[in-house]
Amino acid sequence: MEKREKTILVTGSTGFLGSAITQRLLVSGCKLKLLIRKRDNDSSQISYVLESLLKELILGNQSDEDLQYQCRVVGEGSNKDKLLQELFISNVEIYEGDITSRGFGLETQEYTRLCNEVDEVFHCAAVTHFEMQGADEHMVVNVKGTENVLQFANSGKQKRFHYISTAYVAGKQNGIIGENKMVNEPLFNNEYERSKFVAEQLVIEYAKSNDIPYTIYRPGIIVGDSKTGATCKFDNLYLFVKVLFNMKNSFTKHNSEGLKNVTIRVPGDPDALINLVPIDYVADAIVAILRMRESNGKIFHITNPNPPRLRELRDLVLPFLEIKGMHVTIDRELEKQSLSAVEKLFLRQTRSYYSYLFSTLRFDDSNTQQFLKGTGIICPTLTKELVRTLIEFAVSHNWGEGKPTVLQKA
Ligand SMILES: NC(=O)c1ccc[n+]([C@@H]2O[C@H](COP(=O)([O-])OP(=O)(O)OC[C@H]3O[C@@H](n4cnc5c(N)ncnc54)[C@H](OP(=O)(O)O)[C@@H]3O)[C@@H](O)[C@H]2O)c1
């Protein structure tokens, strides 16, 4: 146990993974400086973020073991809500800034003070969608932004640098991907992958040439919490299930005969490997590895060691939706064939994820497994029950769109 708890600058703490990591760092006693993007012309931003983060922490899924440890620090008998509030108030400072600006757009004095106070940087902020919106949005935020965060790590006090990459920097390669630096640039499925690849290379080169201790974490496709299903992001798996769910509800509502015996063909390789990992495993694993000095200079695949195949995933999801009479087949050659209206609708709504339905990448996670040995942190298997937990949460939270919904009986 180190004498003084570390001070960590976290980027991306309002995001899906960043908020889960922030919660865990907080209950483990770290002092946190959260760099949060400024909302235009909103002078109440800090109190809004403070309030919503606080709420998230209080309502979040802190495990009893984490809290027991923290209770020893803050005082026996503290109740969970009070404990988290106390921790937040005493250990968190919020800075409004932007990683795309040099010095994060902070006042020079404030930036310099931060450079001298922070022991470690946890860089999680990124643009994570796959669509091209601004011409070079991915490069500006994910690459230029990472360069600015590296420059911060290299100013003032020496700091450790933790970088959240993605397992899919592997792009369109096949086979088994190791936990090491990619030697050659692969072909990519989208600009997101390319920008994360370039940023990862930048982290390694910059850290090596400036003697910055660094660790890189490459998560798979993150889904909700394995115990509660909780998520604040409803992309990837959720998007596919939501389209099927809406089709089913629409057929049911209109009492349509169309559902009695309909086959929907979706594109993909039935044997594709879909590397879904629950957020609690990803965040627990990263925080455990982050605390080990020996992780310096290493890359970790925070992936599912037993990912389901696409056809297995389909068979796990469909019974839960109770879509009697509707069959979903997976077709490698679908794009060459003529499609029904329903199939066209399905394709249109899920297009940005296509390439992942053909991926047979396997991620070697030996480093991660070696570092997690004895911690009790294990990636949950994607069972029928886990899929049910994930989907039930998404349905009851209307896929993140406000009013809750229910699954209609067919
Ligand atoms: N989710 C996954 O399945 C997955 C898988 C593998 C790797 N990853 C990686 O994990 C990290 C977190 O992903 P996520 O899913 O949690 O993403 P997310 O929910 O979209 O969160 C992204 C975070 O980055 C912040 N951000 C974006 N641009 C910024 C800027 N210019 N300055 C400051 N902050 C900025 C966002 O702030 P605002 O709240 O202001 O938008 C938000 O806090 C990313 O590096 C991503 O590449 C994610």
**Rg over C-alpha atoms, rounded to the nearest angstrom:** 22 Å
Quaternary structure type: single chain
Please outline the major beta sheet: 7 strands, parallel
Question: How much helix, percentage-wise, in residues?
Answer: 40-55%
Helices and strands, in N-to-C order? EHEHHHEHEHEEHEEHEEHEHEHEHH
CATH topology of the largest domain: Rossmann fold
Q: What's the total helix number?
A: 13
As for the number of domains, it is: 2
Detailed description of the structure:
- This protein is α/β, with parallel strands linked by helices and 410 residues long.
- The protein folds into two domains: 7-224 and 275-302, NAD(P)-binding Rossmann-like Domain (Rossmann fold, 3-Layer(aba) Sandwich), CATH 3.40.50.720; 237-273 and 307-359 and 381-400, UDP-galactose 4-epimerase, domain 1 (Alpha-Beta Complex), CATH 3.90.25.
- 41% of the residues lie in helices and 14% in strands.
- It is built from 13 helices and 13 strands.
- The chain has helices spanning 16-27, 45-59, 64-74, 80-91, 108-117, 137-153, 191-209, 237-253, 279-290, 310-321, 341-350, 366-372, 384-396, and strands spanning 7-11, 31-36, 92-96, 120-123, 160-164, 176-177, 214-219, 221-223, 262-267, 276-278, 298-302, 326-331, 362-363.
- The strands form four sheets. It has a seven-stranded parallel sheet with strand order 3-2-1-4-5-7-11, with helices on both faces.
- α2 packs antiparallel against α4 and α6 packs parallel to α7.
- It is globular and about 65 Å long.
- It starts with 6 loop residues before the first strand and ends in a 14-residue tail after the last helix.
- The structure holds NADP nicotinamide-adenine-dinucleotide phosphate.
